[in-house]
Amino acid sequence: MKRVFLIVLDSVGIGALPDAHLFGDEETNTLLSCYKTGLLSIPNMINMGLSHIEGCHYLGTHGKSLGAYGRCREMSAGKDTTTGHWEIAGLCLENPFPTYPDGFPAEIISEFEKKTGRKVLCNKPYSGTDVIRDFGQQHMKSGDLIVYTSADSVFQIAAHEDVVPTEKLYEYCRIAREILTGEHSVGRVIARPFIGKDGEFTRTNNRRDFSLEPFKKTLLDLIKNAGFDCISVGKINDVFASCGITLDTDSHGNEECMQKTLEMLDSDFRGLCFVNLVDFDSSYGHRNNAQGYAQELNKFDIHLSLVMQKLREDDLLIITADHGCDPGDVSTDHTREYTPLLVYGKKIKQKDLGTRKTFSDIAASIAEYLGIEYDLCGKSFMGRLI
Q1: Are 33 and 58 in contact (CB under 8 A)?
Q2: H helical segments located in 143-252
């Protein structure tokens, strides 16, 4: 019974892509910024081959790797969550999602205000923690919704849970999702609930992403249509708008998601367990907290030891990322970087997979491993490993 565990370390980039200058991301390197804190301790990832990947030799040489390793280049024109995950699943974007460096057009905001019955505050690019600090009290007094964006293709709505109940906020997000079509088809509408009082506002784990449905089939659809299981851990279900998912574990945050992953390792299923660990990005990358980022990687590495121990004879483990978010960068935005590729299993050979031309090589390889016919983007590396 073949099982694949695909873990996306959200935003753990390993160095600027050749076209990073087009995105203002020259010389960014998320993992290196974590390493420079002096706090990074990730022996299990290093043993899997991380230090052997081109551009990661600063981690030191540690003999032979336990599995296969390489790095992936993003083919799609973007550096956001949806673009990265869709490409990992075999769907490459020729055109990037729209972004709004000057805020959303008046006609979009006007229609949103009309349909929700609430006015809008902010409407410009903003850090998620800063925006509730600067507009939270005004929101609580007026009931107006805090709408903001970033360098990514996102329409984010922040509201205090005492002012706008979480389910109501989700309803407003669905309204925004219906409005944002055509040329304004943003990748995600995101609910950003928060709690607390002025000066002490904090975001909750009730975040929810309302993504576009993939415009073509992905690996997830192929797996489901072939009669296999496709299990979502973390925000995977949201990123793919539930398309191709057979079971959503409804899990949030790195710790809970890793616990769910360990539970799935003890369960019987056939197919893919697709995991996203969002805290690297949302709690540390976007907040330029390199020390916290390094320590969160250390926590994951401890969990990784348990994951490796629980793998069965025919299990396959793949670790990668969807983009970068360099905590040492001057901005708080995602960064255009290579992503790591670590492949491990009891039957997997120790191989240098080099630089892959697209994230979609992962999808092609998983399909080949599961014996599923594949006609999407990417080229499988599985034949070199078994």
Answers
A1: no
A2: 166-179, 219-225, 236-239
User: What is d(CA 328, CA 331) in angstroms, rounded to the nearest whole number?
Assistant: 9
> 66 and 344 in contact (C-beta within 8 Å)?
yes
Which H or E run contains 190? strand 188-195
Rg of the chain on CA atoms, in Å: 20
Q: What CATH number is given for 3-91+214-384 in this structure?
A: 3.40.720.10
Instruction: Check the CA dihedral 329-334-339-340 and report its sign.
Output: positive
Burial class (CB in 10 A: 0-12, 13-18, 19+), 310: middle
d(CA 318, CA 140): 44
Residue 296: closest CA among 313, 278, 309, 314: 278
Q: What is 106-210's CATH superfamily?
A: Phosphopentomutase (3.30.70.1250)
* Closest among 207, 180, 194, 215 to 100, alpha carbons compared: 180
Q: What is the pLDDT of residues 137-155, one digit of tens each?
A: 999 999 999 999 998 899 9
pTM of the model as a whole: 0.92
